[in-house]
Amino acid sequence: MAEGQRARLNPKLAMAIGTLCVSFSPVLVRLSQAPPLVTATLRLLCTVLILSPIVLLRHRAELSRVTRRDLGLCGLSGALRL
Fold first, then answer.
1. For residue 51, is it within any domain?
2. Number of separate domains in the chain
3. What pLDDT was estimated at residue 46?
4. Residue 54 domain-assigned?
5. What integer pLDDT is reported at residue 78 of this predicted model?
6. What is the pLDDT of residues 14-71, one digit of tens each?
7. Count of alpha carbons within 13 angstroms of residue 43, beta-carbon side
8. CA 51, CA 1: separation in Å to the nearest integer?
9. What are the respective helix, strand and coil percentages of the chain, to the nearest 5?
10. In a domain, 39, yes or no
């Protein structure tokens, strides 16, 4: 691979993996003994852990332009559930 090029994931393979994960989700939720709020929180935590490295690598310039005010507004909207 030439310098500066990224390895690309086959879109059909990515779609198949995503479909498989989404399909198993209700089964795993049903089998778990955890309350729904805990299950939802863990699912979102896993999503953040998977997507964070991708976002940091591909969108670093955009993230550097986010101000403290922007972060505060995001936190406030989450706290107020808007």
1. yes
2. 1
3. 86
4. yes
5. 85
6. 889 888 888 887 887 788 888 888 888 888 888 889 889 988 998 999 999 999 999 9
7. 15
8. 24
9. 75, 0, 25
10. yes
